[in-house]
Design goal:
It is a single chain. The protein is an all-alpha fold. The chain has a domain of 155 residues: MetI-like fold. The protein contains ten helices and no strands. The relative contact order is 0.17.
Length: 231
């Protein structure tokens, strides 16, 4: 095991071409998925905090429940939709990075919606009377609280990114783990471990751990900045 760790560190230090390719593809897929999820999830979360409508509580419960969506189930559903026999099979997206982006976006969106709702709910209660006195409509209130909570909301996006980079089940099903095309860090770790190539698996695992630490450090820093500003 010690030798595998040494080889893993050597791969990282040498900036191994295969290693860098897999890391770059992983980040590209995850960033694209999180961008889509944020574009949908942030306005949706703030809208849940502002708008009042029948069934709103049920929607909130559903969104929170969807945070725990089983990745393999999501992957299976997207596979069925994108397969040749599926309704979107004509697009030819199965076993492509685009399919992986869709899978990750589906998994990450409920997380961003739920966190955004929690962060903006109290803020809207604080601003509601003032916004009403200015004659602000609900969509104006949504824009206002999104802007005011923008620093805190980065933590929601960072949480989504951390979830996306760690995903393996769904992307393996819809991506196929094809070398040079859809192979990302998590799927490569699973494959290389089964092959006994522990050096590459450990190198990618270390990168994932460092990424997780970095994401959490940024989220905590931004949370501290937000608390200081509100204080």
């Amino acid at each position: 095991m010690g030798q595998a760790f040494v080889l893993a560190l050597q791969l990282i230090a040498a900036l191994d071409a295969e290693l860098l390719e897999i890391i770059a593809r992983s980040f590209a897929v995850s960033l694209a998925a999180v961008a889509i999820a944020a574009a949908i999830g942030l306005p949706a979360g703030a809208a849940l905090a502002v708008y009042r409508f029948p069934g709103r509580r049920a929607v909130i419960v559903l969104v929170n429940a969807l945070m725990g969506l089983p990745p393999v189930f999501v992957g299976l559903l997207i596979y069925l939709f994108l397969s040749r026999a599926g309704p979107l099979g004509f697009l030819g997206l199965l076993f492509t990075p685009t399919a992986m982006i869709i899978a990750q976006a589906v998994l990450v969106t409920p997380i961003i919606v739920a966190i955004c709702h929690r962060l903006t709910r109290d803020l809207y209660e604080e601003y509601r009377d003032q916004l009403c006195s200015f004659g602000a409509r609900p969509h104006d209130a949504v824009r206002t609280i999104l802007w005011d909570a923008r620093v805190s909301l980065v933590t929601a996006v960072m949480a989504g990114f951390g979830r996306a980079t760690a995903e393996v089940g769904a992307v393996l099903i819809v991506g196929g783990n094809i070398a040079g095309l859809t192979r990302v860090m998590t799927t490569t770790i699973a494959l290389e471990t089964s092959k006994g190539n522990l050096a590459l698996a450990l190198a990618l695992g270390l990168i994932l751990v460092l990424t997780a630490i970095g994401v959490n450090a940024v989220a905590m820093s931004l949370g501290g900045v937000s608390a200081y500003r509100r204080g």
